[in-house]
What we know:
This protein has 24 helices and 25 strands. The chain has 679 residues and is an alpha/beta fold.
Amino acid sequence: MPSQLISCTKKNKASAFGSKKMVTAWLCLSTSFAPTARAAFVRNQAFRSPSFANRAALSNRGTLPSSRMRQGPTSLASSTAKDYDLLNKEKGLDSYSPNEFEKEIYSWWENSGCFQPDAKQKPNGEKEPYVLPMPPPNVTGRLHMGHAIFVALQDVLARFHRMRGRPVLWLPGTDHAGIATQLQVEKLLISEGTTREDVGREKFLERVWEYKAEQGGHITTQLRSLGASADWTRERFTMDSDLSKAVTEAFVRLHEKGLVYRGEYMVNWAPLLKTAVSDLEVEYSEEEGKLYYFKYMVEGSDDYLPVATTRPETIMGDTAVCVHPEDERYKDFVGKKAVVPMGDGRTIPIIADDYVDMEFGTGALKITPGHDPNDYAIGKKYDLPIINIMNKDGSLNANAGIYNSLDRFEAREKLWLDMEAATLTIKVDPHMQRVPRSQRGGEVIEPLVSSQWFVKTEGMGAKALKAVEDGDIKIVPQRFDKIWNNWLTDIHDWCISRQLWWGHRIPVWYVGDSGESEYIVARNEAEAREKAVEQGFSEDVVLRQEEDVLDTWFSSGLWPFATVGWPASEGVEGSDLSRFYPGTCLETGYDILFFWVARMVMMGIELTGKSPFSVVYLHGLVRAADGTKMSKTKGNVIDPLDTVAEYGADSLRYSLVTGVTPGQVSSLPKKPLSIFRHS
């Protein structure tokens, strides 16, 4: 018997269950135990109860003969189920009903400490711990098939190594999910006839914590229902006090290394969420739109440059018209001025740059440095002014002139009508285009220039690349090495500030009346004040903390080491940090390889000097039986809890892992789940 199961049975204080059918449950579940472990389970639990004394004969039949154990796994499982069914019938018991017993059996496991790693190290010969960080689901989320497959696969790993006698830490927890959680609470406030701005930051955060208290326990209860043998005594939440301190420490250390900075750059702005989001949080979809052709009149003449755009409203932010220097059609216009349509006579330069493709469209481009990433680069090259015409909610601001306060899409229609009336339009063509949408809010992303906090990723990305190249980290399947390399070699600095209230507030204090030009990075306000005095400010100088919070993925990037005691336990011999970091295996979906995995590797190496795990095992996405994506609109979503209630957790788990291939999309079996259930 594995040493850990022995310790579990010694610790157990729970009373035996009184139901006759529990014998069926124990014997059926024993097909996943080693034979000696199964026998010990029965001896130490079922037959301690007098109510089971008359079933002593069953204990001698709880372990199959060794000759039977030499059968193949499929035939053994089948024959074992038949033997148990025969025993049940001989003793007057019905077939095993999982929903009657799984919860109680799981409680016995958990209460007995079966899921905890051994508390004591053996002086000479303890096996190396097997550490499996659980990807933290959203704290207010609900169970779906994505959770079910990671529980099935990770539980196999945890139980396998536990039965080999290794101390296993499968560390569970939940993520505060900044955007998703704040959205839910904002919806609640709107239903009550108010907004977060109305109630203020402090009261809003109180409501979020209340919401978390009401909704936050469901997901972990549901994970238990799937049989997840995680060490719940170590369950963590990304906004726990010590994890919040770890986030602050990480920000301060990265800033001290020169890896965190504040800058004004083009960002992806989500108007519904009213926050910047990273490149990875933007999803592109092919949608039918319109291509608007119009005239950019040359100042002082009847000549014009034909220009096309998919977003006419951004004309109000144009600061140049650009053509190719060798384009004979427009050579004579270079150096002259063009008049901005409906811009109250404002003029902009006509410039030439070989960035323009003469063969594409009209060959003349409007340049809007404040609202297009490519135009932003050209604007920097030619020192063009940057005009922001957009408010945080997606409406136009005073820079848009007569279109001030109109929604961006309403302004588009109004501006085009006005241009038609002024005979400045040419035509409108249907046009398929890639539309950037917010992964969370679903709204169209607006590129705009904004002051944000960034992490320099080039050097950190190079270290993450080297970790895989040198074999410190192995990615399974190996074909994802190429994807890993491509992304990390073309990585951009990471925008880590979010204009939210729920999350880890950025540990930056602005000094006095300087606006945002002078700031201090510190672990708390007292330290910030101390640093301010050292820099020559008075002791009573006004300090104002940054309003923004950090990207949720910043805190999640610390998960493998912050959850086991970093930074408080650095250098402490025998601590969880020294024992359980680095981890062994990270099992997760390939869809968050860059959202989460790459950032954990970059942060882990930079802050601890070690790769956070040695193996990354990527599972695929779960589809419906016909291979299509599950969606509520299609009506093909399968609730894991409904499946567990009808067929049991074992049936669902077995169906998910049967024939699964790392990194490949898998479909639920077309065969009924009943074929996977215990008899």
